[in-house]
């Protein structure tokens, strides 16, 4: 019981640290992992699924092994809760997500569309050319919704299930998906394993996030989640985006462009198109969901 309690206390403390400090400004462990993953990619890349599977397996396995070492050492030294808090703070991205959303809100409130289009890449890979204020607002709201699961709730779920190894392995999976999981000519085959692994790792957390959005956002979120969540091409992002659409009373989905490739996604929700003011509402909802997740972990564990 004491080790379980220490894990829960560490996860909750990590959420608090992230809320006050955001991401480390220098020597960010996730950025370091990304540089290592790029170096490995240069050595093993090949236009095949099996090479991509080896690439993802080695890197995720290495992250898990590092987590086991830290977990065991922290238990021996009696600092398991503090170590869990530090790792949780390092892998969470909820506060930085909210800050990026607010930066976009301020740019759009000033009607600085050029700067907003340039800044959008900090949140998603969508092609910003040709997007007006409403198009940019929708992109930001959708990104905040999806990343509430990826950056906040999912790490906490895996930390609650598997401790420090779970935290590090999940962040490795999610980082690799962001790096090579795109359906581009280079990564169509090589990134397949990373993308599928990310789908599996986020299946439960996305549904937990949707439930927490309903808890924080009301019954309309539940109605839209049940009706529209399964229509999205992603098995996970659609659940969260649909719940956000219902909670905010907006309509998400539609035509998106990614590097010359156009996707037409089903619309979710019955409300109006998102406006600039909805970005701030989405950021507040995202923060509420993150703290709700921490509260649930604290109570249940």
- C-alpha termini separation: 9 Å
**Over all CA atoms, what is the radius of gyration?**
19 Å
Residue stretches low in confidence (pLDDT < 50, at least 5 long) are none
* Strand count: 2
Strands ordered across the widest β-sheet: 1-2
- Tally of structural domains: 1
Category by helix and strand content: mainly alpha
Count up the helices. Answer: 11
The global form is globular
Strand content: under 5%
Helix proportion: over 70%
Helix and strand sequence: HHHHHHHHHHEEH
Rounded mean pLDDT is 93
- Main beta sheet, described? 2 strands, antiparallel
Q: Which helices and strands, and how do they pair?
A:
Blueprint (H helix, E strand, L loop, with lengths): L1 H20 L7 H16 L4 H29 L2 H12 L2 H16 L3 H7 L13 H48 L11 H26 L1 H10 L8 H12 L3 E7 L2 E8 L7 H25 L1
Antiparallel strand pairs: 1-2
């Amino acid at each position: 019981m004491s080790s379980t309690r220490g894990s829960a206390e560490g996860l909750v403390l990590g959420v608090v640290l992230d809320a006050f400090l955001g991401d480390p400004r220098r020597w960010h462990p996730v950025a370091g992992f990304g540089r290592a993953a790029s170096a490995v990619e240069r050595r093993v890349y090949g236009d095949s699924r099996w090479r991509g599977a080896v690439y993802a397996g080695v890197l995720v396995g290495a992250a898990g092994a590092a987590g086991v070492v830290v977990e065991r050492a922290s238990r021996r030294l009696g600092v398991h809760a503090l170590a869990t808090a530090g790792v949780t703070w390092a892998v969470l991205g909820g506060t930085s997500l909210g800050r990026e959303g607010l930066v976009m809100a301020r740019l759009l409130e000033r009607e600085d569309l050029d700067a907003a289009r340039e800044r959008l890449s900090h949140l998603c890979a969508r092609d910003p050319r040709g997007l007006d204020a409403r198009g940019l607002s929708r992109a930001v709201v959708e990104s905040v919704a999806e990343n509430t699961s990826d950056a906040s709730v999912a790490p906490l779920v895996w930390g609650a299930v598997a401790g420090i190894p779970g935290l590090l392995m999940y962040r490795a999976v999610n980082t690799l998906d962001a790096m090579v999981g795109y359906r581009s000519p280079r990564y169509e085959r090589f990134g397949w394993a990373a993308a599928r692994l990310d789908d599996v790792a986020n299946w439960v957390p996305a549904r937990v996030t949707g439930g927490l959005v309903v808890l924080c956002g009301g019954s309309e979120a539940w109605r839209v989640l049940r009706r529209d969540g399964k229509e999205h091409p992603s098995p996970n992002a659609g659940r969260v985006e649909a719940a956000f659409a219902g909670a905010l009373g907006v309509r998400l989905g539609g035509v998106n462009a990614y590097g010359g490739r156009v996707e037409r996604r089903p619309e979710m929700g019955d409300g109006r198109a998102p406006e600039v003011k909805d970005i701030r509402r989405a950021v507040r909802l995202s923060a509420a969901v993150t703290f709700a997740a921490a509260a649930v972990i604290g109570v249940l564990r």
